[in-house]
Amino acid sequence: MSKQKIPQATAKRLPLYYRFINNLSIQGKTRVSSKELSEAVKVDPATIRRDFSYFGALGKKGYGYNVEYLLEFFKNTLDHDEVTEVVLIGVGNLGTAFLNYNFMRNNSTKIVKAFDRSRKKAGTQIGGVPIYHIDDLETELNNIDVAILTVPQAEAQEITNRLVNKGVTGILNFTPARLTLPNHVRIHHIDLSVELQSLIYFMKHYQDKK
Ligand code: ATP
């Protein structure tokens, strides 16, 4: 419904807004200005005003936005009542860190199972998450829709094919592999070394000197 009308760039900022608005509500604040929001989430006020107009939240001059209204909207839109179960494939250094972290600050997503090809890792747990052998992927996946991929690059496509065949429709890909996927599958790539290099490049070339 309203979800489809929100542009993708706006949708990506929702969790950021949600976290901040939630904190305001915990502090007992009832309203917030776009300037305050802008400073806190580092998004310019014009973008905030445009984003919020998609949520049906129209700020009033001299009043700002109603915190409770926004909170309700974010809760409903981000389905925070419902926990989305996620699986993780590849319990190496990065995968292990995710299992220990397990999105503790965000109670709407949870890694419930992990898979690895190592027989030593299978049958153990990290951060309370059971690790299964990758051979058991098809039998253990059940109805889980979302997967985090932290396997080596060369393994990523084959694992992805298996995930998609079992009905996974969302993949968070931490490998540098560019994956081929059917259109109905949503993939987000996070290549940490590329992000770091790009940060350093922008610092060198675009940042104002002190
Ligand atoms: P480590 O130090 O444990 O090797 P790493 O992150 O440096 O961690 P990688 O070679 O990137 O190691 O592999 C990440 C994890 O993915 C390892 O635990 C490895 O056993 C696992 N892995 C590799 N291939 C597969 C596969 N086809 N299916 C499932 N897991 C796999």
Keywords, separated by commas or semicolons:
9 helices, Rossmann fold, Arc Repressor Mutant, subunit A, alpha/beta, 44% helix, 2 domains, 7-stranded mixed sheet, binds adenosine-5'-triphosphate, 18% strand
Number of domains: 2
Alpha plus pi helix count: 9
Q: Which CATH architecture of the largest domain would you pick?
A: 3-Layer(aba) Sandwich
Average predicted local confidence, pLDDT: 89
Number of strands: 9
**At the fourth CATH level, what is the homologous superfamily of the largest domain?**
NAD(P)-binding Rossmann-like Domain
Cα-to-Cα separation, first versus last residue? 47 Å
Radius of gyration: 20 Å
Strand order of the largest sheet: 5-6-4-3-7-8-9
The helicity comes to 40-55%
Strand residue percentage: 15-25%
Small ligands present:
adenosine-5'-triphosphate
Q: Provide the low-confidence segments as ranges.
A: none
CATH topology of the largest domain: Rossmann fold
Content-based structural category: alpha/beta
What order do the SSEs take from the amino end to the carboxyl end, as H and E?
Answer: HHEHHEHEHEEEHEHEEH
In the CATH scheme, the class of the largest domain would be Alpha Beta
Sheet with the most strands, sense and barrel status: 7 strands, mixed
Shape descriptor reads globular
Descriptive overview:
This protein is of the alpha/beta class. The protein folds into two domains: 3-77, Orthogonal Bundle (Arc Repressor Mutant, subunit A), CATH 1.10.10.10; 84-194, Rossmann fold (3-Layer(aba) Sandwich). It contains nine helices and nine strands. A seven-stranded mixed sheet has the order 5-6-4-3-7-8-9. Strands 1-2 form a two-stranded antiparallel sheet. β7, α8 and β8 (170-173) form a beta-alpha-beta unit. The longest helix has 19 residues, at 8-26. The protein starts with a helix and ends with a helix. The mean pLDDT is 89. The chain binds adenosine-5'-triphosphate.
